[in-house]
Structures are given as structure tokens and as C-alpha cells.
Amino acid sequence: MADIINLRQARKVKARRDKERVASANRAKFGQTKAEREARRAEEARVERLLDGSRRDGDVDPVE
Known about the structure:
This is DUF4169 family protein. By secondary structure, the chain is mainly alpha-helical. The chain has helices at residues 7-30, 34-54. The model has no long low-confidence stretch (mean pLDDT 88).
């Protein structure tokens, strides 16, 4: 005789598994460690300082 299963619980278990699989893929795709984020920010700040230091007098910031 076959085992009796609760279909509602089986659907919930399957949904949790699917959701975790998607979350895992997103973590791999978009995730960065704190050290990676800080390194990126530091590099962006360094480039900004370099560009500001290279600006000649009378140059206008195109954003303003």
C-alpha cells in the first residue's frame, strides 16, 4: 500500500525548495562581500580624487 502524504504540506515543501534555489542563484549573481564593496568604494573615491586633482582652473563640472 502507498504512503499517504498531505498534498498541502508537499506543495509548501516544494515551494520552499524552489524559493531557496532562486535565492541561491541570486546570491551568486549579485552578492558581494563587505570587503569587496569597501574595496570598490575606495577605488571609486581614489579615481574621483585623481580626476578632481587633474582639473584645470576654469573647468566647469558638467553635472552642475
